[in-house]
């Protein structure tokens, strides 16, 4: 994700979606902001930079129409730093090989669960 990609409007979410690894179903962390290019995840354990992850997002129980949806995503960790909450880490991920279905659900998340205020 180059400097120009960082100019995408980031959307802070009102719900922090948990992200799990495919296969082991290990919780990686929670999405705190999201664009059509990638997301920022907060988490407790360090994650390697420049590493590909196969993940999926768990939708909230109240989103019953999405309850059974499982959209696999391949993402690349680009950077990592301490979060504002010093007990957590924040890592930026870029979407890799995003399917049309994944694109559709990412846009639905942005439209349904974003704060009105945009962060750039």
Question: How would you characterize this protein structure?
Answer:
With 120 residues, the chain is mainly beta. Helix content is 12%, strand content 37%. It is globular. Residues 1-6 have low confidence and may be disordered.
Segments where pLDDT lies below 50 for 5+ residues? 1-6
Q: What is the N-to-C order of secondary-structure elements (H for helix, E for strand)?
A: EEEEEEEH
> What is the terminal-to-terminal distance?
15 Å
Fraction of residues in H or I helices: 10-25%
Give the CA-based shape. Answer: globular
Helix and strand composition category: mainly beta
Summarize the entry for a quick read:
This protein is mainly beta. The chain is built from 1 helix and 7 strands; from the N terminus they run E-E-E-E-E-E-E-H.
Keywords, separated by commas or semicolons:
120 residues; mainly beta; six-stranded antiparallel beta barrel; 7 strands; 12% helix; disordered N terminus
Map the helices and strands.
Elements: E1 11-12, E2 18-21, E3 27-34, E4 38-43, E5 52-57, E6 73-82, E7 89-96, H1 100-113
Antiparallel strand pairs: 1-3, 2-3, 2-5, 3-4, 4-7, 5-6, 6-7
